[in-house]
Each structure stands twice: as structure tokens, then as C-alpha cells.
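Lab notebook, bench 4. Still working through the backlog of constructs that have no structural model yet. Next entry is a single chain of 380 residues. Request: give me the C-alpha cells for it.
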Amino acid sequence: MSVVQSPRAQNRAAIRVQLIDDSAVVRGLTRRWLTGLDDIELIVVSADGMQGVADAIKHKPDIIILDVEMPRMDGLEALPHLRRAAPKAKIIMASTLTHKGANVTIQALSKGATDYLPKPDSSQLGGADAYRDALIGKVRVLGRADEAARPSPAPIPLRPQSFQPNQAPRPAIQIPSKPELRKPPLRWTRPNAIVVASSTGGPQALQALLPELCRKTDLPILVVQHMPPTFTSILADHLNATCSHTVKEGEKNEPVQSKHIYIAPGGFHMTVDGQGASRKIGLNEDPQVNFCRPAADVLFNSAARTYGAALTAVVLTGMGADGCQGVATIVDQGGRSFVQDQETSVVWGMPGAVFNSGLAHSIHPLKEIAEAVGKSLHGV
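Model written out:
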């Protein structure tokens, strides 16, 4: 154990962080990055999971950064002990970009870890800087209850110039001065597909939503979860074990079928194109959208072009506003939108952006979304 001495040791306003990592290099870098920040205090550094649990009992941190692969007690084994030791702490899993690291990370997320952070390897130029920035950003968002709950500013949901509707343009969508639920479309259209967006807290939310949604419909479900390569593949495998539908990463030119859930592969934008039985998955490596690839806006816009009004969108927990512009396109075409509520979201950025833009037809706690979507598929 290494207790970090800080001139702000008595500053309870700072986010109190514990690092558990067996790498001396990572411990040294993290100490250097966090030292001197006014709003973050690294209070204790632990060299393995066993010591980390003892330190968490003593120091009660707000945030725990937990390595996955460690001697004596690895991150997955330590996780339930840490949740008991510091029940109010948010736990960020720090994992290498390997199959083993990704697998353990997804297991940890399903067992209650709050978020994850992929560690760069030594071959990635500039990877340490990107990791530092992502680490500090996640600590700040997750460590502040008010920040985690506060929605992102409502963007202006304009239809992209590249989007060509299959009908005459409608009037511009009016954004209300005071957020409120949008009225359902006057003319109900039976949906032919469901699109889902999620980010921070998304793996847990998907694990809760998708098995229940499979019980409500056989429609194809297309999902964007912000994750790097390898992680999306492992996520699909874990979801496939709990869903009655086939869950897999989308593949280029793959036909879109009922009773299938397609996860956008990390590093690729996923689209859906075509008509009727000829609808197919598309993948591309176009520039990031909303700093993401895959991006929900890319999928949502292509799905709106393909399905028109016969489309339902669900936006789950996540930082930022990805998906909001795509929901605007879907709503503009006559489709329906559902968002996760603030109380059950880890971060109410993405669903909050949709709600604050006046684009949400319905808002629900996570456990009630599948039931609400199921009823809407039958015109209720």
C-alpha cells in the first residue's frame, strides 16, 4: 500500500481516487497525472487486489481504478470484495486490449463495475496521453454525482446534408424551450427494426434490456455500444449467452434477419441499407462522428433512410450526445424514440440530450424499457 500525501488531504470536495495496479510504471504515471489536479485526489495506491480490498475498507474512495490482470487476486476476483468494502465507490476497470483482458472486463461490467478503460500497449504512439486524458475525464464524470446526472447541452438536431429522404422534406423540427415528451406520430407504422445506442454504463444496460426485448419481438435489433475492437466481440459473445436471439458482431454485406441482434464492431461505423428482404449490414472506416467509431448517429441515419417510419430507436446511458442527431432523423421520418431515465442511467448524457431536444416519445427506468417498446410495436 502507498498512501499518497497531498496538500489537499483534507479537501473533501476533491474526488478521492484509489488505484489498484501491479505495474510500477502504471502506478508512477497515474500518480504523476493526478497529482496537482484541484478536483481529483489520489489517496492510496495498491499493488494487487488483496491489498486493494484492505485499502478500500480503510480509505473509502469515491473512485477505484482497478487493473484486470494482477497476482494474488485479479480484478474480477477483487470486484465483489471492493463493492462490499466501499459500496458507494464507482469502479473503473483498466484492461489491456487483449482477448483475455476484454473478456474479464466484460464479466466485471456485468458483475457491477461502473465503466472500463482500455490500456494502450507500448507500440501505440501517443497512447499514454490518450489514456491519461480518458482516465481523468472518466474520473471527473463518474466522481461527481451532479456531473454524472447532468445532461449534455441539447444539440441542434439537423438532418445531415448527405441524408436524402424518400419523401418530400418535412418542416424543420421545432425544439421546445422547456423539455417535454414528444407526442407519438399521428399515423402509426408497424416497426420493422429497432436501433439501440449506449456508451458509459451500456454493457450493463444492454445485459438488462436485450434479453427482455427478445421476449417481446422477433424484429432485428442493431446496436452501437462505444467500445474498441475485441471488446465488442466479447460483448456480443456474453450477450449471446443470455439472449434468445442470435447476438453477433455485424459483418459487411450480411443480410439483416429477424431474431438477430447485431453489435457494431469496434473501430467501424455500422449501417443498414437496401429494401425488404435485401437489407444488408454495411461497415466502413470513415472518420469518427461525435469522436466515436462506431457512432450511433451513423447507424440511426442509415436506418432511417432504409426503414423510414417503420423504425424504433432506444437511447441508453452514456456520455456525450451521440445518437441525438440520428434520433432527429428517425423522428422526422415518423419513427418512435425511447430513452432511459436519469435515475437509472450511469451518465444521462446521451438520453438526456435526446430528451432535452424534445425528441423523446417516451422515457422509462431501464427495467421498464422493454415492456414499453413491446407495447409500442403493437400500436399501444
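Notes after review: The chain has two domains: 2-148, 157-163+173-376. The mean pLDDT is 87. Flag for follow-up if needed.
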